[in-house]
Automatic annotation (TrEMBL):
Gene3D superfamilies documented for this protein: 3.40.50.1970, Dehydroquinate synthase-like - alpha domain
Domain Fe-containing alcohol dehydrogenase-like C-terminal: 189-362
Protein name in the entry: Iron-containing alcohol dehydrogenase
GO molecular function: alcohol dehydrogenase (NADP+) activity; butanol dehydrogenase (NAD+) activity; metal ion binding; methylglyoxal reductase (NADPH) (acetol producing) activity
Gene source species: Shewanella aestuarii
């Protein structure tokens, strides 16, 4: 196992009918900015409940954080936060709203060019801790894990940029599965696949004898395989949705990723596909992951064999056949929940793979994978196989 530090300060408030507890979770004298997306939280009544729970606090609203939140939109919220001296942010929505709100928390008191916050890759952005506005989240879409991590992804000038800082862990994350019952089926399917691929990117690398991490990862994946199709088909099945919600949070709250290598190739290629073609985040992953594995079988041999046996119960055949069966079953699982797994199914021409390669080059994504050996030539092979 590799050395690691682990700290996660987010207070998780999980379960039905918890919104009234916001009164204890948000500082009593806070000037609060509630942030949300295109209006689902208004349509389904969540916003009214949130405002009622905040009682007499001074509350402002910022609506319109879009999917794959744009820097320019977030900077409009930053203006509001500066003008109104906001000292607590409350995100109500999916990954895009939660991520966007983290960026607002960082940018509001940042002195200097706020676009510079976008160019630090996986390193924390250089902002002093006390210059980050605290935030809480009410998650309405189980998928990204943003509710319990310190990451955000912000869209700017044709790219998607990861941003992180230890002080953007939400102080609390309210996770009420019932708030997700209103999701369209496709967003639930997106959530199942995004969570699954988060686990995979921290698992299917090379073995370091991280037994706890591996078995937790396998447990989350088996849970997603069990409940994924059920929660897509039965939106109001509470237990299935509750298990999806906790799987998605557990997949990317750092716990399964401690002391083990990580890959993130599928995500980095997927981000370019979203930026160029507007494909939903999880759908890019559904198309890219099976192909990453088909190209990288030799590098991932031991973990893919373990995955075949422990996640899919595949015990027959030689090594190569077991790995192939596991890849095929995973791809079929993504299709079963409702996502397409080929780039051509998303309307991409084969010639447009050149544009993706150019974007990867422009964003410095030239040494991907758990060992940094995955250059543009291999990304091209992955994209061609995914087409
Ligand atoms: O905007 P509204 O009207 O709220 O509608 C949203 C949006 O159209 C809708 N929705 C959300 N909750 C709903 C609902 N509709 C009905 N009922 C509800 N309860 O769903 C649509 C998609 O929402 P979005 O937040 O964009 O989806 P998701 O949660 O999948 O987030 C995707 C974003 O997260 C980033 C992605 O790159 C993408 O920008 N990621 C963030 C990560 C992180 N912070 O760690 C990791 C991930 O890998 C990912 O990159
Ligand atoms: Zn993801």
């Amino acid at each position: 196992m590799l050395n690691f530090n682990y700290r996660n300060p987010t207070h998780v408030v999980f379960g039905k009918d918890r919104i009234a507890e916001l009164d204890q979770l948000v500082p009593a004298n806070a000037r609060v900015l509630i942030t949300y997306g295109g209006g689902s939280v208004k349509r389904f009544g969540t916003l009214d409940k949130v405002k009622a729970a905040l009682g007499n606090r001074i509350v402002f609203e910022f609506a319109g954080i879009e999917a794959n939140p744009k820097y320019d939109t977030l900077m409009q919220a930053v203006e509001v936060a500066r003008k109104e001296n906001i000292d607590f942010l409350l995100a109500v929505g999916g990954g895009s709203v939660m991520d966007g709100t983290k960026f607002i928390a960082l940018a509001t008191q940042f002195e200097g060019d706020t676009t510079s916050l976008l160019y630090h890759g996986f390193a924390p952005v250089p902002v002093a801790d006390d210059k980050v506005i605290p935030l809480g989240v009410i998650a309405t879409l189980p998928a990204t894990g943003s509710e319990m991590n310190a990451f955000a992804v912000v869209s700017y000038q044709g790219g998607k940029f990861p941003v992180n800082h230890p002080n953007v862990y939400p102080t609390f994350a309210m996770l009420d599965p019932e708030l997700t019952f209103s999701l369209p089926k496709i967003q639930v399917a997106n959530g199942v696949v995004d969570a699954f691929v988060h686990v995979i990117e921290q698992y299917a690398t090379y073995p370091v004898d991280g037994r706890v991490q591996d078995r937790m990862a396998e447990g989350i994946m088996r849970t997603l395989i069990e409940i994924g199709p059920i929660t897509v088909a039965e939106p109001t099945n509470y237990q299935a949705r509750a298990n999806l919600m906790w799987s998605a949070t557990s997949a990317l709250n750092g716990m399964i990723g401690v002391g083990v290598p990580f890959d993130w190739t599928t995500h980095m290629i997927g981000h370019e596909l979203t930026a160029i073609f507007g494909i939903d985040h999880a759908q890019t992953l559904a198309a890219v992951l099976p192909s990453v594995w088909r190209v990288r079988k030799p590098q991932k041999h031991a973990k893919l064999l373990q995955f075949a046996e422990r996640v899919w119960d595949i015990t027959e055949g030689d090594d190569d056949s077991r790995i192939n069966q596991a890849i095929d079953k995973t791809e079929a699982f993504f299709q079963q929940v409702g996502l397409k797994t080929r780039l051509r199914d998303y309307g991409i021409d084969k010639a447009q793979i050149d544009d993706v390669i150019a974007a990867l080059a422009a964003h410095g994504m030239t040494a991907l994978s758990e060992t940094g050996d995955l250059g543009l030539d291999i990304s091209r092979e992955i994209l061609e196989k995914a087409w």
